[in-house]
Design a protein that fits this description.
Elements (H helix, E strand, L loop, with lengths): L1 E6 L9 E2 L2 E2 H12 L6 E5 L8 H11 L5 E5 L6 H8 L6 E4 L2 E5 L14 H13 L4 E5 L20 H8 L5 E6 L6 E5 L2 E5 L12 E9 L5 E9 L1
Parallel strand pairs: 1-4, 4-5, 7-8, 8-9, 9-11
Antiparallel strand pairs: 1-12, 2-3, 6-7, 10-11, 12-13
Helix pairs in contact: 2-3
Amino acid sequence: MKRLLQISDCHIDDVEQSIGVNSHQNLSLVVNEITQLEADALLISGDLSHYGSLNSYKKLKQLLAPIDTDLFVIAGNHDDKNNLSAVFNENLFTLFTLGKWDIISVDSVQAGQTSGYLTKQVLLDLEARLTQSTAEYILLVLHHPIVSMQSTWDDTLSLENPQDLFAILTKHPNIQAVLFGHAHQSAEFKKNGLRIIACPSTAVQFNDESRIGFNYYRLYDEGKFDCEVKWIAS
């Protein structure tokens, strides 16, 4: 069994106050909780920074320092890819492996847009990685939701072309789930037999400002996995 942590939408800024909360303090609470858990990897599914400044990524790295496990990150719509790469270049990934599982990233970010879109090149690259993967089981991760959140969330801010992604997913039955952030809420859906899992924000939930959280996965060798949402009062 392998253990994977997922955090998302940290929205770290040059100052502590961001999107109406102390995002630095809230992330520190999450980090403290994470250090009490066993984990083989930590995944951050976008919006590491709020405005994308170089200093915000440096501050984020300091806040994450107590976590002693491999770190993997993808960009969100709030991130500046150049500044993110300058600080977290060794942590940006397209694929990493945990036991019998491959975790593959999909870049859904459109420059200057809140909503997501998978370009033809991104879809081709994904198809190639899926074809080349020799893992028994696969998790996909992107920033944007790929289904309706069935909440107060504005679905027009999610992925604009999920049908193009599902056209690929149906050809690869070893894909067990798709993970994402962006919506600042915890949720799980099922479509075409596939688990689709939203990760809460470490900064603030749009539908519940009283708590912050993260996802904790246990990946089993036979292809099943558990997802436990860890909540912390904020």
